[in-house]
Fold each of these.
Amino acid sequence: MGIVERKEREKTEMRDRIVEAATLMFLEDGYEKTSIRNIAEKIEYSPATIYLYFKDKDELFFAIHNIGFQLLLKETEKSHKIKNPLKRLHDIGVTYIEFALNNPEYYDLMFIMRSPMNALKEKHGDEQCWTYGEAVFGTLVSTIQECIDQKLIKSKDATIASMYTWSMVHGLVSLKIRERFKVMDLPEDQIRKMLLQSLDEVINNMKA
Amino acid sequence: MGIVERKEREKTEMRDRIVEAATLMFLEDGYEKTSIRNIAEKIEYSPATIYLYFKDKDELFFAIHNIGFQLLLKETEKSHKIKNPLKRLHDIGVTYIEFALNNPEYYDLMFIMRSPMNALKEKHGDEQCWTYGEAVFGTLVSTIQECIDQKLIKSKDATIASMYTWSMVHGLVSLKIRERFKVMDLPEDQIRKMLLQSLDEVINNMKA
DNA sequence: TTGCTTTACTAAACAGTGTTTAGTAAATTT
DNA sequence: AAATTTACTAAACACTGTTTAGTAAAGCAA
């Protein structure tokens, strides 16, 4: 019986249509304006229908959050070809900063907003939910481990070093995205330069 | 005529009562649950009254945000007595991290949430609005400048170095507050230790 | 003291939000 | 053909920030 398979296909198709519409609205108008009602109107269904495919708004935004991680993972994978782990580390950093600056809405959802993390709370144990995030972080840890093995950096603990390199780039872009660099009273384009300059200097400081 | 003075006093008293009630609710129940209606009920006035003292919710939360900065400034001022600028830098970092971990709601409002920044947009030019933030950041910049002058760190640019040290500690605590360190799958108390350990290592890396 | 004006406040409405419930019409199975 | 399951929705619930129009009291001038 192909009916049950068609139904399944239709179910995922509908889910995807919702996520697609929500993503478009989110990227264009931001989180606040992307309401369940607006999404429903866009796909020409009633708001209640969305709740047949997603538990709540957080779960829907977790789906978008996940697509963001796929995009970031694809970007960081380009660094794989770089043999020198220190140069690769730098390249991952640049990729991360540029991803954040070019996709501020995605970045916000992935690393700043509370919404997708609320969804993650209930369904821990579910495979293929946090995997993309772990993959990106794993790339960072293994690259730093290579640096340690080759005695290229001072640090001895890859976890600690990963923690603060990630924190540093996240701090840079999140302060930018949430407009906290305004205290520094600098022009937009100079901030952008200084973010990359900061990355240079920190990695340089790490060198053995 | 003392009437106009009494009226002025009553006006600021009322404003303070609103901020006080809002702060208490915010710290206990979080931003989302601190609604204009709930605050109004707590102080036994109608919701519309709050709009006679604050332009909107953002402006009210900017007032709370400002109190947070006063608290942080008071904490960081304790580091002033430390003569060695590098040790002082480290102490400021520890203070910053501990402030964030002990007052996550305040920290969130001060450095992560959009709300207070929206309020800041309209009224630029207003004195005594962003001053506390500038004071805290100024302390960091001048401490780092001292480190450069005394050739204690490799960096030559105090602005850049301030940018990435701030970003690093902000990154650490904001990833913690917004629950992104869950990818690392580590127990709560160990995360806390690693935040301070990260600070140690980064400052060590900065040494000339 | 009376009359006018300003001040301080509020009830009610406006326009939205996420979410749930009860009910319907069509598709599918028996 | 009847029974059941599926997919969907109208309407309601309980909220949210904010505005408008109106009221009662306080302050001031004649």
Note: Residues 55-206 of chain A form a domain with the Tetracycline Repressor; domain 2 fold (CATH 1.10.357.10).
Amino acid sequence: MYKRKMEEDLDCGIRVALKLFGGKWKLCIIDAINKGIVRPVEIHKSISNSTLRVIEMQLAELLHFGLVDKCAEDVYPKKTAYQLTELGESMLHILAQIDHWGNEHSDYVKEKQQLLEEEA
Amino acid sequence: MYKRKMEEDLDCGIRVALKLFGGKWKLCIIDAINKGIVRPVEIHKSISNSTLRVIEMQLAELLHFGLVDKCAEDVYPKKTAYQLTELGESMLHILAQIDHWGNEHSDYVKEKQQLLEEEA
DNA sequence: TTCTATGCCGAATCTTTTTTCGGTTATTGT
DNA sequence: ACAATAACCGAAAAAAGATTCGGCATAGAA
């Protein structure tokens, strides 16, 4: 796996939390699993602009840090399913609030974003 | 400013929110301002491993998206102070929960992190 | 048998973000 | 006058993160 070059400090809660779910896709993946979309291909399809590879990689990280569990039946067309662990579930309320807050301000942010694109 | 090459979609709340405060430093900066650390140099000093340049850049983005305001008195030793806007304040409860959650699981995460470093 | 789908992985490449380094302006203290 | 500090900014470089591409294996369907 990838070896960091700069040291990180996990001294404040914010950094710790961001380490676990601060990526571009992690919260979306957790959200999908929470909604019952539990297989890699399905998760990939449910998240626009995502590639399957990145979903796999992020799932591996979520797995490593114990936010999700993997249940692979080793038969048939290899039906792998992921599910949230207790740790994963313990941050769902935060996820819900982030999502809600984002939705509240979605239009405003899109406007501001456009301003940036215009001047560029 | 930097011009993106890949399109983003701001179609789900999660993405919108992460666009505003999803960087490596933004939440820490908001936290600092909320704690009364309001000047760039002070913010920089309060966040370990941060460079002044990145604080300035992130402040500019927070400013653009209206999470903070700048109050620069154009006199004396240029006492610039940043403060949270209403929008900025509206996400403080999320910030507090993220921080809390991260602190709760800090030791666990550090352990898992070490495992990664050892195998590398 | 051949094609398709799934799950996974390695490696090269590209994009984005962060850092480093240098500079400008203006004020304060010596 | 001179050093120190603050706020900023631009640009090159480095680092981190994401994507593309190819591959492997398994199994079901055509």
Note: The first strand of chain A starts at residue 68 and ends at 72.
